Amino acid sequence: MTEAAARRAPGTPCWVSLMVHGMDATQEFYGALFGWEFRPGPQQLGPYVRALLDGKQVAGIGQLPPDRQLPIAWTPYLASDDVDATAETVRHCGGTVGVGPLDAGEAGRLAIGSDPAGAVFGIWQAAEHVGSAVTGVPGAMAWNELVTRETASVAKFYQAVFGYSEEAVVSADFDFLTLHLAGHPVASVHGVGHALPRDHGPHWMTYFTVKDVDEAVERVADLGGHVVSAAREGSHGRVATVADPEGAEFSVVASPAA
Fold this sequence. Notes:
Blueprint: E1 2-3, E2 13-20, H1 23-34, E3 37-40, E4 48-53, E5 56-63, E6 74-79, H2 83-92, E7 96-104, E8 108-114, E9 120-126, E10 134-135, E11 141-148, H3 151-162, E12 165-168, E13 175-181, E14 184-191, E15 203-210, H4 213-222, E16 226-234, E17 237-243, E18 249-254
Parallel strand pairs: 2-5, 6-9, 11-14, 15-18
Antiparallel strand pairs: 1-10, 2-6, 3-4, 4-5, 7-8, 8-9, 11-15, 12-13, 13-14, 16-17, 17-18
């Protein structure tokens, strides 16, 4: 179990959050799927709850204003020591900042931006809330991957903003690289070219750990979600991509001990 009591190094994915229309139904879905319980969080952007796994914070779910027809999607938050400076760098490097920077009560300060290709991500400057308290165990975040058209140009943006180094997979037919901080992998970028769906542009994909991928996929369907990409053997074990009842896509990956 990976404890995470300390402030994360800038650029580390430290939290994931989902904005939805139906808060109650969404909490029921994820509570049944991952065993999450919920408690109120900062309300600066409207109603918001933090998901708890065995008493430890793992994710956030917020209420979209009724008049906002935004894509329903899980959004990773990347750590920053100075969200205002990071937001300025995002703009300078060709990205946009759509929300903030603004304070989230005593928890910290945030902004929500997008890279030059349009993938949305958050920026989090921790105060009382440092982010996910546990990762890599069933029901918690395992990994975050940027799915985009091609890695080269967009990776340069993230390197410039967050100081990542990169490690590419050398392959004639596979455009994939891993983003590193201080020698440790923290996220990946997958260029899929024309395989990117027209109705679902470049986006960050959050992976959650489960004990049994096939069982989780079946549970998703039973709970009103659907399968986007059937269970398969991936480079890090069995994985599948699914969507919740409002359409937010995420992947489930088998825990290493499974």
